[in-house]
Amino acid sequence: MHAIPSLSNRQLELAGLISEKAAAAQWRDWRWQLRHTIRDVNTFERLLGVSLPVRDRRDLELTVAKFPLAVTPYYLSLIDQDDWANDPVLRQSFPQAAELLINPHDMIDPLAEDEDSPAPNVTHRYPDRVLFYVSGVCAMYCRHCTRKRKVGDRDTIPSRKVLAQGIDYIKRTPQVRDVLLSGGDPFLLDDGKLDWILGELDRIDHVEVVRIGTRTPVVLPYRIDDSLVDMLKTHRPVWINTHFNHPRELTHSARESLARLADAGIPLGNQSVLLAGVNDCPRIMKSLVHKLVQNRVRPYYLYQCDLAEGLTHFRTPIGKGIEIMESLIGHTSGFAVPQYVIDAPGGGGKIRVGPNYLISWSTNKVVLRNYEGVITTYTEPDSYAAKFCDRQCEKCDLQLNLADAPEDKALGIARLLSDSDETIALTPADNDRARRRDDSDSA
Ligand SMILES: *Cc1c(COP(=O)(O)O)cnc(C)c1O
Whose CA is nearest to atom 12 of ligand 1? Predict the structure, then answer.
């Protein structure tokens, strides 16, 4: 069906260095790749064929002791040996002593994922969807991982018994219509276990979609084999989000793995992280998103690098992300443009940021600017019969099929905008004014 791409000379050379008996077929065996994952600096160095400056060695060992190293032979084969020091693949996979620098604002669990956890391995933050950590292992340990705190806990492959508790939480929480399988990498589970999890979720009526977040198309594309894809096809709508950060990662093998998934009818998205020294460049990002859409992958999110410990050297100012968004919006296909988001420290969730296009307004006109710098106006309608919405939808002349209506009350800022809710302000609870009010209430 799909042509098998031939190995590069570098890959053949590496296969031989790793194991004399290795044949090309073994290189494409994902279990062989995992068995030969590189986990120490010396082997990394030997296979890369460079010797790293000696001054760094002790710091490197300390770094690896704190944040373990793991990279597949496949991903290592993408490093350019002639310019390894600036290589985006090396920077994402090889430790740097800078990871030991902890900034005053860094946090161990910046997104408070462990706090919003009503059941083991579940984070329930948004009204209708949950994050479900089904695997504690990855093929490659991304140096920029937001869950660095957990990386290398090899004992965290959850048992069926533990997973059953998460499934049970989802079962008894009817608001959950979207389940995100994450980890670790869910595709490092064997097909049988993944099939079991997906099967359990299929049986829950209120779960409408399941998403899987995986980096295997980037670091272990051979994992996307026929048996995995055939299994995925038997389950309820499954969406896959992958994690390409640099156009170099879209190799022949990676593209082939994406084609298998897309041919199986699985919608594909991509989440990138904005990383200093890797992809903090409008031209690199444009090239990345173009390659993604050519391979039927919709750029979904561009994340601001978060405040997890050990990521200082990867962070850019927010302005870099906005500059990149400015260079994409309008300049290229709308569906090639990801949403730039900051995952709010403390558990506020993802917040979209970007350039501003609405520059002024009056009572009947707004002033806008476009990507070229054209300043234009839009005149608003003189008459718009705004209806007072009391949320009595069954009496409304707009045709909402009530059976399909998702929610019956407005939340958050949407609540401030709503006619039917009397809330006029959202007030922080944790300040002196609120405490004074509480005191006088109880007096
Ligand atoms: C990112 C995330 C989600 C999914 O958010 P979407 O914006 O729907 O992709 C859900 N739960 C948690 C805790 C998350 O961090």
Answer: 131
Helix residue ranges, H only, 82-128: 88-93
- Domain map (residue ranges) of the chain: 9-95, 122-355, 404-442
Look up the CATH number of domain 122-355.
3.20.20.70
Closest CA to 221 of 188, 195, 185, 257: 257
Q: In the predicted model, is pLDDT for residue 156 greater than 80?
A: no
DSSP state at residue 338: P
Measured in Å, residue 126 CA sits from the centre of ligand 1 at 7
Q: How far is the CA of 131 from the centre of ligand 1 (A)?
A: 7
Which atom, in ligand 1's list, is nearest to the CA of 111? 15
Q: Which of 121, 125, 146, 207 to mutate to test the pocket of ligand 1 (most atoms within 8 A of CB)?
A: 125
Check residue 1 and give its pLDDT: 52
Lookup: tokens for 406: 């998702």
Q: By three-state DSSP, how is residue 383 classified?
A: coil
Residue pair 183/135 in contact by the 8 Å Cβ criterion: yes
DSSP 113: T
The Cα 13–Cα 11 span in angstroms is 5
Report how far Cα 310 is from the mean position of its chain's Cα atoms.
Answer: 18
Please give the positions annotated as active site: 125-126, 129, 138, 142, 145, 147, 306, 343, 350
Tell me the backbone φ, ψ of residue 214, rounded to 5 degrees.
-145, 145
Residue 332 CB: number of other CB atoms within 10 A? 15
pLDDT at 442 over 70: no
Spatial neighbors of 397 by CB under 8 A, at least 6 apart, are: none
CA 67 to chain centroid, in Å, comes to 20
Ligand 1 centroid to residue 218 C-alpha, Å: 21
pLDDT digits (tens, 9 = 90+) for 284-325: 999 999 999 999 999 999 999 999 989 999 999 999 999 999
Q: Are strands 339-344 and 349-352 parallel, antiparallel or unpaired?
A: antiparallel
Q: Give per-residue pLDDT as tens, 320-374.
A: 999 999 999 999 999 999 999 999 888 889 999 999 999 999 999 999 999 999 9
* Residue tagged 């919003």 (tokens): 116
List all residues whose CB is within 6 A of at least one atom of ligand 1: 123, 125-126, 129, 131, 180, 350
User: How far apart (Å, rounded) are the C-alpha atoms in residues 401 and 410?
Assistant: 18
Alpha-carbon distance of 257 to 275, in angstroms, equals 25
The three-state secondary structure class of 369 is strand
Where do runs of H (alpha helix) occur along 210-356? 216-219, 226-233, 252-263, 282-294, 318-328
The whole-model pTM stands at 0.93
